[in-house]
């Protein structure tokens, strides 16, 4: 009989636990959703989708300026170099950053139309990658 008296307590505890887990999953997925786009996709997307996004492409040869910790450059689409988006990044540059390097920037589009990056990562050059050899 003691079990029947405690049954509502167990049900309430389970529902609270399940509700807490559900809330954590929901809030984690909605707050951390970031679009991962190439430059062509970003230029075609609506500005509200670019409020928080990751873009990947190649650092353009032109439009590179560096003043203190602020860097401005053109990010080109890897497959279509005519598609370009302006990027402004404030922070420490990776050693492998240079024109022609493949990069990933994370941030958002500004009202002025450029991409304000809060992080910048470069792709490792192929000399650091393991060779695939057939034996």
Short description:
By secondary structure, this protein is an alpha+beta fold.
- Overall, the morphology is elongated
Overall pLDDT metric? 82
Instruction: Indicate the low-confidence ranges by residue numbers.
Output: none
Q: Reading side by side through the largest sheet, how are the strands ordered?
A: 2-4-5-7-6
Give the topology string: H per helix, E per strand. Answer: HEHEEEEEE
- Specify the structural class: alpha+beta
Radius of gyration: 23 Å
Terminus-to-terminus distance: 71 Å
Describe the structure.
The structure is a single chain. The protein has 2 helices and 7 strands. It has helices at residues 2-31, 39-44, and strands spanning 35-38, 53-59, 65-67, 70-76, 84-90, 102-109, 115-122. Strands 2-4-5-7-6 form a 5-stranded mixed barrel. Strand 3 and strand 4 form a beta hairpin.
SSE blueprint:
Elements (H helix, E strand, L loop, with lengths): L1 H30 L3 E4 H6 L8 E7 L5 E3 L2 E7 L7 E7 L11 E8 L5 E8 L13
Parallel strand pairs: 1-2, 5-7
Antiparallel strand pairs: 2-4, 2-6, 3-4, 4-5, 6-7
Index terms:
135 residues, alpha+beta, 5-stranded mixed barrel, 7 strands, 27% helix
């Amino acid at each position: 009989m003691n079990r029947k008296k405690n049954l509502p307590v167990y049900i309430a505890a389970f529902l609270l636990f399940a509700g807490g887990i559900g809330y954590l999953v929901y809030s984690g997925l909605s707050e951390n959703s970031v679009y991962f786009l190439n430059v062509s996709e970003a230029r075609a997307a609506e500005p509200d989708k670019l409020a928080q996004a990751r873009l990947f492409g190649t650092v353009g040869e032109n439009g590179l300026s560096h003043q203190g910790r602020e860097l401005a450059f053109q990010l080109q689409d890897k497959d279509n170099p005519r598609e370009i988006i302006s990027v402004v990044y404030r922070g420490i540059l990776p050693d492998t950053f240079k024109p022609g390097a493949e990069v990933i920037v994370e941030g958002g589009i500004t009202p002025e139309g450029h991409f304000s990056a809060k992080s910048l990562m470069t792709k490792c050059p192929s000399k650091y990658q393991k060779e695939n050899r057939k034996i």
